[in-house]
User: Fold these one by one.
Assistant:
Number 1:
Amino acid sequence: MDLLRFFTAGNVDDGKSTLIGRLLYDSNSISTDIIETLTRQSKTTGINSDIDLALLTDGLRAEREQGITIDVAYKYFTTDKRKFIIADTPGHIQYTRNMFTGASNANLAIILVDARNGITDQTKRHSILSAILGMPHVLVCINKMDLVDYSEARYTEIENDYLLFAKQLGLKDISFIPASALAGDNVVTRSDKMNWYTGPTLLNFLETIEIYETKKTEASRFQVQYVIRPQTKENHDYRGFAGKVVSGNYKKGQRVVVLPSGIETEIEKIEINQREVEVAEINRPVVLHLKDDVDVSRGNSIVPIEHLPRTEKEITATICWMDNVGFIPGQKMLLQQNSFRTKAIVKEVISKIDIHSFMELQSDGSMKLNDICKVLIKTSEPISFDSFSENRNTGGFILINENTNNTMAAGTIN
Amino acid sequence: MSKQFDYLDELEAEAIYILREVAGQFDRPALLFSGGKDSICLVHLALKAFRPGKFPFPLVHVDTGHNFPEAITYRDNLAKQLDEKLIVRYVTDTIKAKKLQDGKGKFPSRNGLQTYTLLDVIEEFEFDACIGGARRDEEKARAKERIFSVRDEFGQWDPKMQRPELWNIYNGKINKGENVRVFPISNWTELDVWNYIKREKIELPSIYFTHERECILTENGQLMNTNEFIILEADDVIVNKKVRYRTVGDMTCTAAVESEAYTVDDILVELKVAKISERGATRMDDRVSEAAMEDRKKGGYF
């Protein structure tokens, strides 16, 4: 059984939390004591008469009071086919950074559209953010079909509008499902009111979608997280580099390069849980041993000699500013890419991306909360990377404020 | 190709990755060990992450004095067997030293009190990261917490000021005095934990499996074991039942469930038909209010 991580984008008004609630409720993933609590809460705060399914995901007091989602909530359910992790992300523009958090590890975006309103600014914003994060699959769920008389014409109109808009975004795989989360149409059970729709229900779709594995074609990548050196009598010379194979694979005897130093060596031994293996496959946490006694430390990359990443001290990237305090020109910061950290500085704000049209606008050099900008960054040590569109595992980074330690921005390298 | 990489492999890989990030980013981390199944899984994952090296952190237990003796025995044996450092600090000592009011009532809970001892032990050893076995499926406030959860000098969680956390990039930068709570098995569910225990053949304290026990049948139908900390009253309904524990917390606030499960396989069968959530079935402390967990976390609790 495999695992699908997806996120949902949209406002409470679009029925997002209701949709998740419906998915969990109808797939019997909610325990009776939780339902009791919900029923009790629904009576005092809920909008609906029986159970307000939205209350399932809004876990913070402030969220329940205001009826909005502020931060990501993670929900879990399992069917016979798959395990699912849902990141329920906020739709409001002021919580864009939280949406990024929830979306970054997902393989699928579910974008909710209210059938009455069609494509809105928010739909566009969520789609653009999905594109920036390189989402492999996008599902547009056209919700509240009950309020447009389950009209096929309306559904087709929205589908066409969306495809027209999405053309410029470069999204790889887009699907559509007409549904009513409140009434339960096409979420878990097939609707008898939309016979014109022959595609899968939402759950069906989630269970059967083939998860796009960009990683399979990508060059092998590994970063050292931690050096294991027991220094005991029986393991006196043991020096293993612990980390995870984030793409491709590594073989015993393979010629590799350590970056950024550029030293060539060979993989002498690969261990998984202290057992020696011939090949380290993608996603495995492993320990690599190198033939030569070379200088390797945390944050260094070990890569195949025939597929080197770029190693540079200047990068252009698309970043989302996430700190309440705006960008101060010249401010020193730390750049972190997985386990690699270096001092960095934003040399230039090249342009600002309009998150409703995807147009590049002229920048005035400022960056405020939730702004998405193209920037030129200079690092003090060279960073080894692939462009984000080539490899999501080596092309993403965060910027940390050296003073407050806050994560100020997240970026994808162009 | 080796065997299929399934969801348990993925959850395991994520947890090992997080443990190694803690080792790489912090000077003085600790693993909070309770003797419960979740922290037992953490220890198992740490073995996979760091052997043949030693753990880059000690195991730390905040002993409330109300723990099940089976869990304490398990804890001591495990530390000895692995030859890893175990630090134990006692809530009873904190109560004496700080002149705190002990838990009151029929089921005197030390749940709130253990936060004091936890914060003290963090200060004593200057821990900058504390690894815990909390899972997001346990409770709705936990469902909102980051994997690296930054706490201020008072151990407080501020749910509105959480750092963005993207991809596999964990920002553990903090100022002196602050600490990070790290939850490597955030994305595991109760069922995942049991499936993992089965696959990895992890040994557990005996109270997770069915046994005969004398219990008080409470008004709301929960089974509380009789013990020295619970005051028996004349009208208490005492029953002898075959029970097991779904979670291992304090004897004063953890209820048993009726069970015939002798093995992990039996437990998995039981869980698949269980209608009540793990905490709902067994914890009295979460029933106080809708926001009980959120409030305790804001106060420095795990």
Note: Residues 204-287 of chain B form one domain.
Number 2:
Amino acid sequence: MRVWSKALIGGVAVALTVAGCAGSGSSSSSSGTTTAPPAGPRTITVWLMNGSAPTTLTDELNKEFQDSHKDVTVKYEIQQWNGIQDKLTTALASNNPPDVIEIGNTQAPKFASDGVLEDVTANVNDFNGANWLASLKASGQWDGKQYAVPFYAANREILYRKDLFEQAGITAPPTSRQEWLDAIGKLKAKFGSDPNFQALYLPGQNWYTLLSFIYDEGGDIAKQDGKKFTGSLETPEVKAALDFYKQLVDVSGTKAPKDADEQTPEQAGIFGQGKVAMMVALPWEVATAAKSDPTIKDKTSGFPIPSKTAGQTAPVFQGGSDLAIPGNSKNKDLAREYLKLITSDKYQAQFAKAGMIPGTSKDVSALQADPVNAAMAKASPNGKSTPATPGWATIEAGQNPIKDMLTAYLTGAKTFEQATKDADDALNKAFSS
Amino acid sequence: MTSTVDTARSAGTPPPAARPGVRRRARRSLSDLATPYLMLGPAVLVMLALLCWPAVQVLFISFRKLDLGELVRGEVKWVGFDNYKNVLTDPDFWVISLRTAVFTVVLVASTLLIGLGIAVLMRHLAGWVRVVLQVCLVLAWATPIVATTTIFQWMFDQNYGILNKTLVKLGFDSYQGYSWFSTGTSTLTVIGILIVWQAVPFIAFTLYAGLIGTPKDLYEAAAIDGANGWSAFRAVSWPSVRPLLMLTTFLSVLWDFRAFTQVWAIRQGGPDGKSTTLPVLLYLKGIAGSHFGVSAAVAVLMLVILVAVTWRYVRLLVRSPETEL
């Protein structure tokens, strides 16, 4: 009886182990195969993200692609940002991955460095290479090779209430840091008696704004040496940037929490309540604010974050998306042609029309029609991305030392030296993991 | 029945060859003996496949280098104890482990004390008051974790939170714009309150069930013998809730040790990683960093810690006849 039960359990265990080995071994055979394009009808699977390319664009694009490629069907699927990292990981590991994918520019280095994307260095010129947006180009590079192609981007600007500016006697939007501070002073003089009024809404952890100031001072958050990145926050440039941020917080008397970012609570919602004159935001946050008060849309305009050099705009952090071909794709030839089409001027112009900065075209004229979009476009040539290292993924996932540094410095919990050293240590740890 | 036999066979147990001569008797008794096991077979297989198999996989993965690249290319790279070395030589791991252990102990102790207190209270409360309390408990318990977490975030918000506003109204002016999430301890305290708040109802109801299971005449007998409230609790209530208390302690340790959602949702383990617990570390290494091998090693180490902590309880639960549940 005992022997029986032991034999049974032993047998099951052996069976499971064998099955497991077989399971993990079998998938290895699929890698590295270069298949000749099969004859007959083919399907190319394209994954774009929710809210990225407008439907009018994709409909036209997919139709043109199908018309010019006989027997080819485009299987176009819209993905949700929520949980996309896991979904992409699973999809890339499968035998039948999508052929064209859209990835966030801060995720791109991780995928590029792990060698799961097709090297497209040789095709850069086919994809409108001369007009690429510098920040997105950098995000798709790893070890001197190009793995991802710029798609579209956006950057922050200062959204402001035209009516409040007018009432406070501010005639033109600020074009220097000093004018920006002066505008805050005038707004406070006019509306300061209202305890709920905020000349500028600036939460303690809006690190994208800090990045802008750091770039403007000539600094950066990390130095690159080949594949190696090192945190570079313990510098006078970062000190100057942090001090200006602190000055803005102090002078404006913003009621935003010092220990949270612009999402908690969502700043557009607070802007929409009508008691905020300015916020550093993305153009489409106007629409979010208008959900609370539809009249706010007509009262709001934008200007680029001013530089410390009067008359210039400050460099900005650019968030956006890249396009890439998964290494396991069975239709790399079609994928390349699809990328060629989507990166052409014709379709890139439609991105500008939709209010985004095109990734492979320098033509931003379509953004000029709307003053909010025009302000973004004005600053866009001077855009930067976060360090193109796979280690950034952990920071992106939530534990961002730059946010902690900001809160610690603004609240006085740490000195500048201590705050930046802790943040540099944390960055270096993330980069080396 | 046929399917049962098939499953058992496919699992690799050929029926042993019967000896000649005693063939008839042996076969009959063998099949008699085997029948219960064959009937158990499918259930055992399902359990092995769903419970043991993933655990075994994690153990295997913890000895492999498995990053995004290896996963996508389907490579199997054995690296021996490298992942464990990587984790164990990181001083942060020890700090995080200790933090997680202390956090769990404090949480389990407070959950059980409050739960027991409410259970005793419920037994003494009359009619509708008890119903109101029970409805409140059920509501607190039934609210989704993320919803409760969001409410707590708002309550403890620096400028818009009801807590700071109330404290200022009460005259504690230093709480104007006070940040509850500026240090790890303070952040973990808020998270702790949140978790305890959600865990207490279940514990209270379980213990309450034990209390009302106690025959009334035992209390009457105790009262005749001149027992006051405290000694009646010790002599009558305590023995009846003790086995349940043991079970709930065990469950609470498991739940609180693994708590991830609340910790992550409140501050992603910040500030400066000072509220990072082991499950958060697991997430950061595995999902965020795509180092699935290292992450599996953390998971195995967590299991080791958990077994070490709960070993006594497991043994007591398995052995003691009074905890037959």
Note: Chain B is about 75% helix and 0% strand.
Number 3:
Amino acid sequence: MSSAPHAPAPGDSLAARLRHEAGINLNHCYQCGKCAAGCPVAEDMDNTSCQTLRLLQMERPELDRRVLESEAIWLCLGCETCSTRCPQEVEVAKVMDYVREASLALDLAHPRSRDILAFHRAFLDSIRATGRLFEIGLVANYKLRSRHLLKDVNLAPKMYVRGKLPLLPHFIKGRSGMKRIFQLTLGRKR
Amino acid sequence: MSRIGVFTCHCGENIGATVDCAKVAERTRNVPGVVHSVDYKYMCSDPGQSMIKEAIKEHGLTGVVVAACSPRMHEPTFRNAVEEAGLNPYLCEMANLREHCSWVHEKNDATTDKAADLIRVMVEKVKHNTPLHPIRVPVTKRALVLGGGIAGIQAALDIANAGHKVVLVEKSPSIGGHMSQLSETFPTLDCSQCILTPRMVEAARHPNITLMTYAELEKLEGFIGNFKATIRRKARQVDEKLCTGCGLCITKCPNKKIPDEFNEGLGKRSAIYVPFPQAVPNKPVIDKTNCTFYKSGKCKVCEKMCPTGAIRFDQQDELVTLDVGAIVLATGFKVMRTDKFPEYGYGKYADVIDGLQFERLASASGPTLGVMKRPSDGKEPETVVFVACSGSRDRAKGVPYCSKICCMYTAKHAMLYKHKMHHGKAYVFYMDIRSGGKDYDEFVRRAIEEDDVKYIRGRVSRIYEEDGQLIVKGADTLMGGEPVEIKADMVVLATAVQAQDGSEELAQKLHVSYDPYHFFAESHPKLKPVETNTAGIYLAGACQAPRDIPETVAQASGAAAKVAALFSRDELTREPVVAVVNRLPAPTFSYCVGCFLCQSACPYQAIEAEEIRGRDGTLIKTLAKVNAGLCQGCGTCVSTCRTKAIDIQGFSNEQIFAELMTL
């Protein structure tokens, strides 16, 4: 009768690391394209989500690098439509997250990732400090990080009039709990 | 004088809505010879049939025309009714007012006219009808199964278990076929020999089965229920009765360098050999083309060694004639060889092998005892590329069809390889994955997901050798056709499944049709998948089309069921619509002049010669005679006959002309 299926030898490829660290088996993807078909930003991507998965599946260093250097992984909104719709239950959005981290760690991130990262970090700073979004803090933080100091400034008065830009932050209860979450997840990396 | 009754049916609205049936019945009454004409809503209903029966008795009818639907639908119904009323059933005919008139025309006067004409034509025919009787032919309750692979074994066992005698003929020295060569089988990965050999032994021991290995069909005559088959039993040069299968001759044979067919050329065998250890029967055969004695006239070591004196160098082929009632064709397939692929090295690279060779490499009983070693240098291959669709779906190679089994066995091969060599890399180039079947797709997904076999969608364009490695060049169409190059240690081509050598010749011997690729043709692709166009000959397995084991076994059982159904009767009856050569009183005897043009024209070999002799035994005339058991009533002989001596019963020239002349 059949011999038992075996685990592949751990390699350096992103696919192997994904399998061991995140428990995602990219071999499950059969390239139907449903993830890319439902992706709201697929049209602007250099590699759509299913192309990214295909590149990773081959476990070749040159193809892994192509993924790490791509712009697409930064355009991904993390809306998880792909993960929700995947017939093979591949968590595509998680793969994107993982690949983004790997890209940053290896310093291979696409130049256009800079603004996206700046926003991402400013957003997280706000959450960490107040437990929720503090708009003016976020704007200031983002502008400092991205150095787009005057961009969209003329929108500010209108938003202020409509009460979208409160001057003082609101704090949530139990901010210490939020801090612990940050410590446990991102703390060690940043 | 004819007394014809005509019964016009409305078929509900089917005829009645378009044709004025009452008017048709009225007009038909005036046709000469018609003594009774009525119409009714449903003639096929019980009251309708009773109307016919009563009219026959009341009016003393000599013929009946039912104007209704197609005779395919209800001719048996009405003929039965007529027979119950005491009239010969072949004096009842149908005029097809539905398919030939109401369904294809608008409602108007011309349609009603046409309906009346169709009836008039049939009335003229019935006037010339003669009483006919169904033909009865006896059935010989013994089946012949050609081919001893899994298809033949299964069919033979099923027929034998139904209580009928079977002769199982196999051309090679042992039964077992390709299945005995396989290592493990998809989708369960159970060992092929473990499940096959018990069946082989069962077939050999079954009291109803006579095994004839190393034998081939020489000639076939006769027809369903009454075939006469001549089998050539090739000389083994070994007396099967005396041989005990001890194998001493094999160990002592000095010539052990012959490529082994069972191991697909990957191993060696001696000149006197048994194909494989589990062979049935386990009796050796001398390979005369390679035996030292037959080449140089000296040796006979086996004869000296044999403890029972079973070696017979003077044994000759033997012809055996058998009476059989049915035949199951189960002659199997062959695979295309690697030398048919110029782009993959014309078969000159030892490490580019075909699927069957890989089966032997992976088999525990194979030349490497199941250890992965490549043929050229015995090295363990670190990277193996499997190429599906090698030659299949390739019009340029003459095989436009899908070989069906390759997707599955390629997944199995890659899996077996990964199970034996965990650190090895397996790549599969494929075009589509066709894994329809119970648990089949799951099996392929398992190879990909759990065993980490890399599937690349694309055809391999070239394989060449460079620095002791095989370079496989393809493209990944899932990455926009990006070129892929893989350095491999071994390449396995899943080559096309083709019809067995000699299939065309065999089909002609049996008068069975075959397709352009020499696979035997079934009678109907959906509804008669195990029958051939020749009555009494059935199909099982890959001789009909590429097929996997489960399908082959199912089809073999299907063919066996057909044979058992045939054998459940002592005699067969069939429609008497056959050709007959007319006979006249002496001295003419017949219009037939014995030219036998009809014999060469007959597609069913139904025409024989009949000698007319005088009282003193002198030959007066040789006439053609139609064998009613074989004749299919096609009428080719009728149109060929120069003296108009042949007619089809029920469709004679006289009847057809009468039909035409009335219009």
Note: The interface with chain A takes residues 184, 188-191, 418-419, 422-423, 445-446, 448-452, 454, 457, 476, 478-479 of chain B (CB under 8 Å).
Number 4:
Amino acid sequence: MTAPERAAADRPDPGAVDPAAGPVATAAPGVRREEPAPVATAAPDVRRDGPAPDGGAGRGRWLGERIGSVEVLAALLVLLIVFREPMARALAEPRLQTWTTVFVSVMVQAVPFLVFGVLLSAVIAVFVPRSFWARALPRHPGLAVPVASAAGVVLPGCECGSVPIAGSLIRRGVTPAAALAFLLAAPAINPIVLTATAVAFPNNPEMVLGRGVASLLVAMVMGWLWLRLGRADWIRLPRRPELDGSSRGRAFWAAVRHDVIHAGGFLVLGAMAAASINVLVPERWLQTLADNPVLSVLALAVLAVLLSICSEADAFVAASLSQFSLTSRLVFLVVGPMVDLKLISMQAGVFGRRFALRFAPATFVVAVAVAVGTGAVLT
Amino acid sequence: MNRQAQAVVLLLLGGAVIRASLTDLYLNYVKEGLRPFLIAAGVLLVAAAVMTLWHELRPARRPEAAPAGADGRAGVDGRAEQAGHTGQGDHDHGHGHHEPRVGWLLILPVLGLLLVAPPALGSYAAGQAGTALSSQQRQSDYPPLPDGDPVQVSVLDYASRALFDKGVSIGDRRVRLTGFMTTGPDGQPILARMVLSCCAADGRPVKLGLTGNAPAGLADDTWVEVTGRYSDQVTRDPVNDAEIPHLDVESWRQVPAPKRPYE
């Protein structure tokens, strides 16, 4: 992507175009017809255009005259059906089979949440007018943060759905600090998650309280931190020309298609990582860490990031890690819905890598600190 | 990946999810309660695919696209502009750079569901994880077992009664349990059943040691139905140091894998 393009993409209103973009547009026709792609502009793409660059667009288009994505897809599917038998035999090895089962089930579990989250985000992007957010949220960003965090309580969903929603909110002019607070709060403290926690810890009701309070605190602290330290140019939402200019129905379905493919692709990456951790890290390693109070907190915090379990389910896993202290399990419950492999992957896709590289570690540190503090007060 | 290909991927994903939830395949991966949501999500994915193809293939698309390219908005997009000018005007290539390439990965879950359809978690996963019973789930009182001789109980129910109730609510009743065989660390036979709270990623085994006429000579992952009585023997799971209760087996028989592999 060229510098002017990037500048245009960073701006909240994608409609405004840097006049400097002109030369690019006029230079393009000058390229000889046979030369398929302006290599000079395509090459920087590879380095700058987020984690999923279509850097080979030039090459793709050269081939594209004869072979398009649909043909590639069809050929791929035919090959896979032909080689189904050897593939199934290769996957019969128990470790690989468990990996496949875990991967498929993470995807199956996440698909409804992803689809409903994407639908809601498309509604926000297309049908809710910008003025609504100006009226619904306090004008002062410092006040908008707690309001947005509290709004997360009413949206039952898991983290996969809230990433595209937060992206949509920022696109519609909501201050990033508030949208990010919502992003963190929504999966962590909705009624379903808190009920699941109560069921998983029948003898420790303080876990429910601790989880709710600590997660809300982390969401607000991160929102305010963003107000103080965050820089708007860290967030790079992909340009979405299809969202303006066309009819609402068309824009709506374009947004749904794009978000499912985009966020869904990153979800696949995350699910693959989670399945690998699930199969590769034997639980007996954890046993040796459980006795040391500091190590046990760190171990469960890292485990929450690596396992990437849905926020509705993590309480049951935490309950079964009974060799660990309650505080370290509270850390597991607070960190998990806010930072994990599939979330980092999706955030990098939706907000850009520069954002995810700063936001995820900061959230991790704040979440561990707040959860340890809450745990110390409660237990 | 162009828009038509994206539509095909959406269609495949939606179709795979619908197929898995209409057959019993989905029970290998998630809880039964997710089914209506899976069907709804699958239908929405198919709808998104159909609407994408409809908007893409409708002839009205082209005249609309041209002015959009002229008003300068698409001017930023050098390639879109060039595509228009060179007359190679394949619309979807014009917008190539914000059509996410990562979307190709969505073919993997489609393959997983349609071609591979991996089985439910079994013996390997049970060996990796510690038994799921922890004192956290201890109930204050256990209701009497339902009628029947032998009485059908779940592995989880038997194990928690045996462990936390010291078998009091089981008494001298004969119980019948269904689970799969797995081999313990010392080579002894163990009856296990996986417990899910959400999806197979959080699946955890409940393990039961077997004494008496224990099934022998069975491969791991063979499903069996065992009938027996309470035994007060307890061993420890080396994986998480939790207690494993035992069952004194009177008889057993091999059974096909149940429709709902998890408890």
Note: Chain B has eight helices and six strands.
